Amino acid sequence: MKIGEYCNRDVIIINGDESVKFAAELMRTHHVGDVVLVEEHEGDRIPIGIVTDRDLVLEVMALGLNANELIVRDIVTRSVLVVYEEDSLFDCLELMRNKGVRRLPVVNEDNSLIGIISMDDITALLAGMLYNVVRTVDHQQKNEIKQRP
Predict the structure, then answer these.
(1) Locate the CBS domain: which residues (predicted)?
(2) Largest Cα–Cα distance in the chain?
(3) Which of 13, 110, 115, 148 could serve as 106's disulfide partner, Cβ 3.0–4.6 Å?
(4) For residue 87, pLDDT beyond 90
(5) Structure pTM?
(6) Out of 1.10.10.10, 3.40.50.2000, 3.50.50.60, 3.10.580.10, which CATH number does the structure's domain 3-118 have?
(7) DSSP string across 72-115
């Protein structure tokens, strides 16, 4: 199961010179917990950082800073971790667990941003798969009861 098949392709991106307040507004408007900072290189959007809702709380609100006066570059998590669209779901989960992150930008072989995957996305995917397993087992049991009363 490749991450590229399951990632959210509708990534909210931001410029590093935008205000932190604007980043928060984007998150609210689009109902997401992150925005990805990208740089354009020959038509490719290369992720260079990520700002999460947690960053807003820890780096701005908890310190009593003014979100209007800060720019995204002031609080962005640099050296952002990424996964490649060809990486497996399980490799992605392992990276998230090892690094303690809940969201990862997804890139292609040119390191261009193509999506984002979150722990919530993976949890929903796995829950759906487990539900299908339970339905299959239940169906098999019912068929067996009909065939061998």
Answers:
(1) 7-70, 76-137
(2) 74
(3) 115
(4) yes
(5) 0.85
(6) 3.10.580.10
(7) HHHH-B-S---EETTSBHHHHHHHHHHHT-SEEEEE-TT--EEE
Contact 119, 92 (CB under 8 A): no
Note the pLDDT tens digit of each residue in 48-76.
Answer: 999 999 999 999 999 999 999 999 999 98
Output the CA–CA distances (angstroms, integers) from residue 51 to 9, 16, 18, 85, 104, in the order listed. 18, 10, 12, 21, 11
pLDDT of residue 51: 95
| Residues 68, 37: Cα–Cα separation, whole Å | 18
Torsion sign (Cα): 100, 62, 50, 48? negative
Q: Are the C-beta atoms of residues 37 and 72 closer than 8 Å to each other?
A: yes
Distance CA 86, CA 102 (A): 19
| Cβ atoms 76, 13 nearer than 8 A | no
DSSP conformation class of 69 = T
Predicted confidence at residue 10, as pLDDT, reads 95
